[in-house]
Design brief:
Distance between the termini: 52 Å
CATH class of the largest domain: Mainly Beta
Order of helices and strands: HHEEEEEEHEEHHHEHHEEH
Radius of gyration: 19 Å
Largest sheet: 4 strands, antiparallel
Number of domains: 2
CATH superfamily of the largest domain: Jelly Rolls
């Protein structure tokens, strides 16, 4: 059963049944409650995690306790992978945002499998490269864009991930979205209200409808202001 689930994970695409069985042999099937910490910044990097069901956030905390979400993980995505290669402590915290099921692959066993199969290493390299690109965009957004531009870029990104759908359901709370965008909930609420007022979006609870995609794109690129 676990080997079939592992075969459906993009990271392990194209491996042989024998390799799926080997991965299943070292995998530890774990469950986490909503709000449960998976690992903390500074903990020993002892392995790789892959989210099977639920949602996980990886975040940093400032000395003042301010949270900055670095990434929100969906089912099928790996996280904590830097520890597999570097063998260093985790550089951030990870927390389950809802009831989650996670496969954990201990570092020693996983390294042995990579040594025996270069294709697994190439798959990991591709995923890490995509994640680096996302972090580059995040740094650019937080340092160069105002909050309206960050929010517009985020909404367009979510839309693209959902086949350019205009109807979006925010599957994270607004305070978590504010943290992801590097702002506070009050500012986020004001920006949403102004976006509605300018006819860019419609908001109903946790649902947002994109009304003017071009306008959002211009806002994301700082070609217009709210």
């Amino acid at each position: 059963m676990i080997s079939r689930e592992i075969a459906a994970i993009p990271l392990f695409e194209g491996l042989s049944q024998r390799q799926y069985d080997e991965l299943a042999r070292i995998a530890v099937d774990r469950s986490y409650k909503r709000g449960q910490i998976i690992f903390s910044e500074g903990d020993e990097g002892i392995g790789l995690y892959v989210l099977i069901a639920g949602k996980v956030k990886v975040f940093k905390l400032s000395l003042e306790g301010k949270e900055q979400i670095l990434h929100l993980f969906e089912p099928g995505e790996p996280f904590g992978e830097a520890s597999v290669f570097a063998g260093q402590p985790f550089p951030a915290h990870a927390e389950a945002l809802e009831k989650s099921r996670i496969f954990f692959f201990p570092r020693a066993g996983f390294i042995e499998l990579i040594k025996g199969d270069p294709s697994l290493a190439l798959n990991m390299l591709a995923i890490l490269s995509r994640r680096l690109r996302k972090f580059t965009v995040l740094v650019e957004d937080l340092s160069l864009k105002e909050v309206p531009g960050r929010l517009a870029a985020y909404l367009l990104y979510v839309s693209e991930q959902r086949a350019n759908s205009k109807d979006l359901k925010l599957d994270i709370a607004k305070n978590q979205l504010a943290s992801l965008l590097g702002t506070i909930p009050e500012t986020l609420s004001r920006v949403l209200t102004r976006m509605v007022g300018q006819g860019l979006i419609q908001v109903e609870g946790s649902r947002i409808k994109i009304v003017d995609r071009q306008g959002l794109a211009e806002l994301a690129q700082a070609e217009r202001r709210l």
